[in-house]
Write a structure and sequence with these properties.
Helix content of chain A: over 70%
Radius of gyration of chain B: 20 Å
Largest interface: A-B, 42 and 40 residues
Largest sheet of chain A: 2 strands, antiparallel
Order of helices and strands of chain A: HHHHHHHEEHHHHHHHHH
Distance between the termini of chain A: 11 Å
Shape of chain A: globular
Structural class of chain A: mainly alpha
Number of strands of chain B: 2
Number of strands of chain A: 2
Strand content of chain B: under 5%
Number of helices of chain B: 11
Oligomer: heterodimer
Order of helices and strands of chain B: HHHHEEHHHHHHH
Shape of chain B: globular
Strand order of the largest sheet of chain A: 1-2
Radius of gyration of chain A: 22 Å
Helix content of chain B: over 70%
Structural class of chain B: mainly alpha
């Protein structure tokens, strides 16, 4: 059941057009390949932020374990790429040719069983979606069916992130350990390292991102999205109205996990390696930071948050490494204390009214759209 | 896996591993006590708890340096002064943080998590700028070095015994303060029903501030004790924060007894497993077991029976 007759209201349409223009036209034209590749890396976090908007902003479920799903997606992709990079002719100096180099260094002489299916690209793509999805389903079912939520859920997801990191670092022979999987070269024989490949990958990623935005927006507009918001505001009333709160929460958590996993897979492709430092507690919380800074209830806000915070991180840590943690910490405290709705809240409170006023002076341009944009959608 | 050891050897191994587990247990208890007060009693998720602990460790390190430079004759006793200073420093910082930051967020517990995470980043960077990125170690006084020979094959390090004694002392005092003193009654009253507590004349804001300060102060003492068994770096606090939260949640958030019981079971499991497999696998198995049990019993081991 679609409540709004239009897919985007007026201000969302503006947001959509601006984002599309920046990502499709302005950035590719104005940046060199190195910087564009950096933007591609930032955008992988935008997928995670998008998932967090659904699960945290709308559903009210704060997950501090999104790095887990980002990592699972990324590792699935990296395993496929690594297997292709370690063909028999590429690895003939090893004592066992045809297996990834880190396995050879750890005295493993044959490919472990769970690595075998990653020879197939189809399996890999399915795994990128279903492995994190199923994992989220298990965690979500176990937690939400027993009505564990709020802070406890946050702490347990954090513990899961810690467990997975320790496991990846500890099982060096199977996962590449702390160094992760490096030296990824080709995708089905197509070299992913040269500049033109980076540009193509960037556009593939942007298209995927917009697909995910479409999915998220669709979920938001259906009845499902409204139940999520209702659940965030008054969980008990939703339960008493006869809805199964747990199932909706599980769904939101699984969607967030799948978005994060797609981001992770794109990360492995764009950046060319995957390591446990993108899985653990610190990156997971940073992903929450991006969402909070951009605005936890705004799809476009969260994406801008991911891009801008990462951009600030790169530029600040390039020029003032001392300042970066200070400013990140201060930014975070400021966002929580003063602007709980992040950048998009600031935009909606201060910039949007002025723009509206500007347009309102001209007759017949803004008002029709406005009544849909600001008021609650009529049922 | 038991084949190569005789019965006597195995016994000694279990005792020694058990003792290593007890030292880990002491650190967990010291860290978790502060957190149990802040999280269990006040409902605030303090992600910067590890950084308060590290502040205590740095204060201890500075005190030991001052004693070494100016009063070498009194060096044997520096630790007692350092502990008090660590408590005061961490507690004072805690009260300041409560005043500036936390008191605005009591109604939004998930946001305290994010804000204190920001605080922990800033504190880490502050430590790195002031004390340097390298880990620092404290020189132990003479009487704490060496170990006690219990039997031929069992020996226990003296500093470990000292830390354990300290843990018992602090746990008993916290239990006394919370359950027997007038102030402790006020704290528990505020936790159970803030509005009613205010109505009978308890200054709830003041109680909140001192409770938070006490929790942070205990974290400072934990850091002080931590210097006896390990070195301190700007990010050491972060390593322990997840474990500590799990200890508190596993034990049942509002129960001191539960915190101690869960710290005991987690640390013993981990250190016993550590002997038979790699340290990382031991940790993974322990954490998995804890998460698994929490999924079956979300309220923790010892839950307060309250109507909600």
């Amino acid at each position: 059941m679609i409540i709004n007759s239009r897919f985007f209201n007026r201000s969302e349409l503006t947001g959509f057009i601006v984002l599309a223009a920046v990502l499709f036209v302005i950035l590719p034209l104005s940046l060199d390949v190195f910087r564009l590749n950096l933007v591609a890396k930032y955008l992988t976090y935008a997928f995670v932020a998008l998932g967090l908007v659904l699960c945290w902003g709308y559903g009210g479920i704060l997950s501090l374990g999104q790095g887990v799903f980002f990592g699972l997606g990324g590792y699935c992709m990296a395993m496929f790429l690594k297997l292709e990079a370690s063909s028999v002719e590429n690895t003939k100096i090893q004592s066992t040719p045809g297996i990834p180099d880190f396995m050879d260094w750890n005295q493993i002489t044959s490919l472990p069983l769970f690595w075998q299916p990653f020879h197939s690209l189809t399996f890999t793509i399915l795994a990128i979606i279903f492995v994190p999805g199923l994992f989220a389903l298990i965690i979500g079912t176990a937690m939400f069916k027993r009505r564990v939520g709020g802070t406890y859920f946050a702490i347990i997801t954090q513990a899961v992130a810690a467990i997975l990191t320790i496991l990846i670092v500890g099982q060096q022979g199977y996962t590449g350990g702390i160094n992760g999987m490096t030296d990824l070269r080709t995708l089905k024989g197509w070299d992913i390292r040269p500049d033109h490949a980076k540009i193509i990958l960037y556009f593939v990623e942007v298209v995927l991102l917009f697909t995910c935005i479409g999915i998220a927006q669709f979920i938001r507009l259906t009845k499902l999205g409204r139940i999520l918001v209702a659940m965030r505001e008054q969980e008990d009333r939703v339960r008493f109205s006869g809805y199964s709160v747990a199932n909706f929460k599980i769904f939101a958590f699984c969607m967030a996990a799948i978005f994060a996993a797609i981001g992770g897979a794109m990360f492995a492709l764009n950046v060319g390696f995957m390591s446990p430092s993108f899985v653990g507690i610190v990156p997971s919380i940073e992903m929450v930071i991006y969402t909070a800074v951009g605005g936890r209830t705004s799809i476009f806000g969260a994406i801008w948050g991911a891009i801008l915070v990462n951009f600030a991180k790169t530029s600040l840590s390039e020029s003032f490494p001392q300042l970066w943690l200070f400013s990140l910490g201060a930014l975070f405290i400021a966002v929580v204390l003063a602007f709980p709705n992040g950048l998009s809240g600031l935009w909606a409170d201060y910039v949007q009214p002025r723009i509206d006023r500007l347009f309102a002076r001209k007759p017949k341009s803004g008002w029709n759209g406005n009544s849909v944009a600001d008021g609650a959608p009529a049922e | 896996m038991f084949g190569d050891y005789s019965i006597g050897d195995l016994g000694s191994i279990f005792v020694m591993q058990g003792f290593a587990g007890l030292i880990l247990f002491s650190v967990y208890v010291l860290m978790a006590l502060g957190l149990a007060i802040i999280f269990g009693q006040m409902g605030v998720i303090n992600m910067a708890h590890g950084e308060f602990m590290i502040l205590g460790a740095y204060v201890t390190w500075m005190t030991s340096n001052v004693f070494q430079a100016y009063m070498p004759s009194l060096f044997g006793g520096y630790f007692f002064l350092a502990m008090i200073l660590a408590f005061v420093a961490s507690g004072a910082l805690g009260m300041l943080v409560e005043w500036v930051l936390i008191r605005h967020l009591y109604k939004r517990p998930l946001d305290t998590l994010l804000a204190t995470w920001g605080l922990s980043l800033m504190l880490q960077q502050a430590y790195r700028s002031v004390f340097g990125a390298r880990e620092v170690g404290v020189e132990l006084p003479q009487w704490m070095l060496g170990s006690l020979h219990v039997t031929d094959s069992i020996e226990v390090p003296i500093n470990g015994v000292f830390v354990m004694g300290l843990t018992v002392l602090i746990t008993v005092s916290v239990a006394y303060v919370l359950y027997l003193s007038r102030w402790g009654r006020q704290v528990r009253a505020v936790v159970q029903n803030r509005i009613m507590a205010g109505a009978v004349g308890i200054n709830t804001e003041k109680v909140d501030r001192y409770t938070f300060g006490l929790g942070c102060g205990i974290a400072g003492v934990a850091g002080s004790a931590f210097t006896m068994i390990g070195s301190t770096g700007p990010t050491s606090g972060q390593l322990y924060i997840v474990d500590t939260f799990l200890v508190v949640v596993f034990g049942g958030a509002a129960s001191l007894l539960g915190t101690i019981a869960s710290a005991f079971s987690i640390s013993q499991t981990q250190s016993t497993l550590e002997f038979f497999m790699s340290g990382s696998m031991a940790k993974v198995l322990t954490l998995l077991a804890v998460v698994g049990i929490l999924m079956l019993r979300p309220q923790g081991l010892f839950a307060l029976k309250v109507r909600k």
